[in-house]
Amino acid sequence: MPDLSDLPALRDASAALTAPFTLSELLAKTLDLAMQLAGAEAGALALVEKDGALTVSEARNIATDESKSRVEAARGHVGGQPGVDTIALSGGGSDKMLAASLWARGRQAGYLCLFRSGESADFTKQEALRVEVFANHAASAIDAAIAKGEFVSTVTHELRLPMTSIKGYTDLLRGGMVGAVTDQQKGLLETVRNNVDWMNSLISDLGDISKLDTGRLKVEVDLVDVASAVQQAVNGLRLQVDAKGQTLTANIPALPKVRADASRLTQINSCLLANACRYTPANGSITVSAETTDKTIRISVADTGIGIADADRAKLFTPFFRSEDAAVREHKGWGLSLHLAKRLAELFGGEMGVETQLGKGSTFWLTLPIADK
Questions:
Q1: What local confidence, expressed as pLDDT, does residue 246 receive?
Q2: What does the DSSP 8-state code read for residue 349?
Q3: Which residues on adjacent β-strands are paired with residue 200?
Q4: Cβ–Cβ contacts within 10 Å for residue 70, how many?
Q5: DSSP conformation letters of 292-305
Q6: What angle do CA 342, 318, 227 make, to 5 degrees?
Q7: In what order do the strands lie in the sheet containing 84-88?
Q8: pLDDT at 165
Q9: Closest to 170 measured CA to CA, from 186, 159, 157, 182
Q10: Which residues make beta-bridge pairs with 230?
Q11: I need a surface site. Which of 41, 266, 299, 327 has the fewest CB within 10 A?
Q12: H-helix segments, the chain
C-alpha cells in the first residue's frame, strides 16, 4: 500500500505547476520539483517534437550531450507509453536513472529523467510511484502550455494576410485608383488604415510573446552600438512627437557595446518612447538619457505625463494589464508592449523598471550589461 505521507508533497508539487509560467519556466520548475520528490542528484527533461526528434529543454548537474544520450536511452526503455522505469547506467557519472514518460492527449510529449549515483543510487518503489504521479500532472501542464503557444501562433499567422490586404486596398482607394476620393472619404480611409496598423502591432506583439513563451523567438545576438539603437528609436518617433506638439530631447553620449539583437534593442527603446508619447499631454516633454557604470549601461526615458498610481505600478509589466484610470483609458492599448519590452530586455541579460509619481510623470529605465572586451 502506498505511503500516504507522500500526498502532501505531491499535492504541493502539482499545485506549483498551476502558476502562470511561460513554457520555459514551467519546464524548469517541473524538473526542479521532480528532483526534489525523488532526491535526485541530477536530471534532464526532454520534449518530443512533431517529427519525433528529442530536444533536451532543461538539464541539471549534467552536460547537455550526456543528458541527450541518456534521454534516448530512456526512450528505449520506457517507450511511447505512460509509466516509469529504473535503468542501470554503465560508465562514469550517475549509476541509476529513473525515467518517466510524459504522456498527454494520447501522445508522447516528452521524458523526465532523474539520476543518482553511489551506494544509495537505487530509486525506491515509493520514489518511482511519486515521480510517476507527478509526471502525469506535469505532462498535462506542459501540453497545455504548448497548445496555447501553437494556438496563438496559428491565429496571428492567419490574421496577418487579411490585415495586409485591408491595408493595401485602403491605400489603393485613397490613391484614387477606382475614382476620385473626397476629403471626407480620405479621412475615413485614413482611420481604417490607422486601425489596421494598430491591429498589426497587436498581432506582432502577441506573436513575439508567444515565441518567447515557447523559446522559439529568433534573435541574432551580436555586439551592438547602443547609442545607434536608441537614436533610431528617437528618429522613428519624431513625427508622432511633433504631431502632439511635444518636445523630445535626446542626450545620448558614446556608449560601450552590449551583446543583443540590434533590431530588438531598437524595438525596446521604441516601446518606451511610444509609451511616453502616448501618456504625455500636448506640449509636454520627453527626455532620453544614458549613463554607464563599470558593468552596465542605463537608458532612461523621462516624461512629464500622467504618471502611474501606486496600485498600478506593481502590475505594470504584466500582460494585458490596463489601469482603470480614465486618463489611461483614453488611449488605445492592450497592455502588451511594456511586457514584451521587459521580456526582451531580460533575454539580453538586462532589467527594466519605472520611477513615477501620479500626475507628475514617469521615468522608465533599462539597464544592459556591457559586453566583455
A1: 95
A2: T
A3: none
A4: 26
A5: E-SSEEEEEEEE-S
A6: 15
A7: 54-60, 42-48, 107-116, 96-104, 84-88
A8: 92
A9: 186
A10: none
A11: 327
A12: 7-16, 23-38, 64-78, 125-174, 183-214, 226-243, 262-278, 310-313, 326-329, 337-347
Which is nearest to 92 in space by CA: 71, 125, 63? 63
Neighbours of 246 (CB within 10 A): 21
Task: Yes or no: say if 51 and 59 are a contact pair by the CB < 8 Å rule.
Answer: no
Comparing C-alpha atoms, which of 367, 347, 234, 221 is closest to residue 294? 367
| CA 208 – CA 204 distance, rounded (Å) | 6
CA–CA distance, 190 with 173 (Å, rounded to integer): 10
Instruction: Report the C-alpha gap between 63 and 60 in whole angstroms.
Output: 8
Grid coordinates belonging to 241 = 512627437
Q: Provide the residue type at 269 as one letter.
A: N
CA atoms of 60 and 38, how far apart (whole Å):
14
14 closest CA partner among 26, 2, 4, 24 = 26
CA separation (Å) from 241 to 147, 247, 280?
41, 7, 10
Burial of 160 (0-12, 13-18, 19+ CB in 10 A): middle
pTM over 0.85: no
Residue-by-residue pLDDT tens, the chain, 373 positions: 455 667 888 888 888 888 888 888 899 999 999 999 999 999 999 999 888 888 899 999 998 888 888 898 888 888 777 888 888 876 555 588 999 999 988 888 999 999 998 877 889 989 999 999 999 999 999 999 888 888 888 888 898 889 999 999 999 998 888 889 899 999 999 999 888 888 888 899 989 988 888 878 889 999 999 999 999 999 999 999 999 999 999 989 999 999 999 999 999 999 999 999 999 999 899 999 999 988 999 999 999 999 999 889 989 998 888 888 877 777 777 788 999 999 999 999 999 999 999 989 999 999 999 998 6
- Residue at grid coordinates 510517476: 132
Cell of 29: 520548475
- Set of cell numbers at residue 224: 551592438
